[in-house]
């Protein structure tokens, strides 16, 4: 019974805190009306939140139409704690140390590297050390995005680097005493888009890098499937009997439309050993006809995948997180022009507003919502 009462109190506390975050400036009386909790409970819980620095009193609002004392307004304090989020890419690592609302304290970036089982732990430790070395702010959680299938913090399948079956969570919990979460990068793209300003309750975050993954958010909650494999759209079949994929299938979507495949084609056109998105952008706007044609073909293939996603998920919005589509917005228009079917022509398709930081901001969202014990967390 004591445990039940404690859980109810924590649930009520989380409910009140979410309303304070959502409404930004709100009185105790309005909190009582919105949550259905009586004024005494609201007063007791907000008193604790204020004493623990989760909430500030910020001044007075307008009195009611019948007069009386002006209400004291409450505001969430995002600087009560900090989180760290890290994106472990195939050939890069990005990291952010931020307050709970995503306000950046420091940034870490290392590119043109090879990530492996042998060095990933050292690289993560290096990122954390650099991110936190100039501050003594309290870190309450760490979230890590991995480009592969993750279920309950376990890494099961990473087709383009060798992290499969690496017990990363066990190694990290030996070193850090705060909660740690490992999640699929596409899931974090979707969660970050939902949490940080996108006006959509049902969305798909399409993450296009070495592979293609889809994070699915419905009414603010990640949909991960029974084994964490929901959204593995890169392994749907685009061309039966086609190119072999590391998953074991032939003709997978990502073997034709991923950024890595696209870059390999353009390297051949330009006769170069290395390219990046900025070089591709330059060739596109210089109207290199072969590069333009290759990009338009990629947009066409991507539109087929998006049509399929739209047919079975019917999201309000699809976010495309790609180093190419983020910097050449005309390609989004090209994708849209290829979508004319009944199930896809109403979908709002847009590039990620968070760009290359999409995955780390999803990590911030995951870490913050777990620390605050708030699902459907949204910062506007």
From TrEMBL:
Belongs to the ROK (NagC/XylR) family. This is ROK family protein. It comes from Ruoffia tabacinasalis. The keyword Membrane does not apply. PROSITE patterns: ROK. Keywords: Carbohydrate metabolism, Xylose metabolism. It holds the Pfam family ROK. GO terms for biological process: D-xylose metabolic process. It comes from the Bacteria. Transcriptional repressor of xylose-utilizing enzymes.
């Amino acid at each position: 019974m004591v445990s039940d009462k404690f859980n109810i109190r924590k649930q009520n506390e989380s409910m009140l805190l979410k309303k304070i975050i959502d409404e930004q400036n709100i009185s105790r009386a309005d909190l009582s009306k919105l949550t259905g909790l009586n004024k005494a409970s609201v007063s007791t819980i907000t008193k604790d939140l204020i004493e623990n620095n989760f909430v500030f009193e910020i001044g007075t609002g307008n009195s009611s139409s019948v007069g009386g004392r002006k209400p004291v307004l409450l505001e969430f304090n995002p600087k009560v704690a900090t989180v760290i989020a890290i994106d472990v890419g195939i050939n890069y690592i990005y990291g952010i140390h931020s307050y709970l609302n995503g306000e950046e304290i420091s940034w870490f970036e290392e590119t043109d590297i090879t990530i492996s089982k042998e060095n990933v732990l050292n690289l993560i430790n290096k990122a954390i050390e650099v991110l936190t070395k100039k501050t003594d702010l309290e870190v309450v959680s760490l979230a890590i995005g991995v480009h592969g299938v993750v279920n309950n913090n376990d890494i099961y399948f990473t087709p383009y680097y060798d992290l499969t079956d690496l017990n990363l969570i066990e190694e990290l919990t030996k070193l850090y005493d705060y909660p740690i979460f490992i999640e699929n990068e596409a899931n974090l793209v979707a969660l970050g888009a939902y949490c940080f300003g996108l006006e959509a309750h049902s969305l798909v975050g399409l993450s296009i890098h070495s592979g293609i993954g889809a994070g699915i958010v419905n009414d603010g909650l990640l949909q991960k499937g029974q084994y964490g494999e929901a959204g593995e759209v890169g392994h749907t079949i685009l061309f039966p009997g086609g190119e072999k994929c590391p998953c074991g299938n032939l003709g997978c979507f990502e073997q034709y439309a991923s950024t890595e495949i696209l870059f390999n084609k353009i390297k051949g056109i330009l006769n170069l050993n290395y390219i990046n998105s900025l070089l591709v952008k330059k060739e596109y706007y210089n109207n290199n006809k072969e590069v333009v044609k290759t990009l338009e073909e990629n947009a066409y293939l991507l539109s087929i995948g998006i049509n399929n996603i739209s047919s079975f998920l019917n999201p309000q919005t699809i976010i495309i997180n790609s180093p190419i589509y983020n910097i050449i917005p005309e390609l989004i228009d090209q994708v849209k022009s290829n979508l004319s079917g009944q199930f896809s022509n109403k979908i709002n398709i847009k590039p990620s507003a968070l760009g290359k930081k999409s995955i780390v901001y999803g990590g911030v969202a995951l870490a913050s919502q777990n620390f605050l014990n708030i699902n459907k967390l949204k910062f506007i």
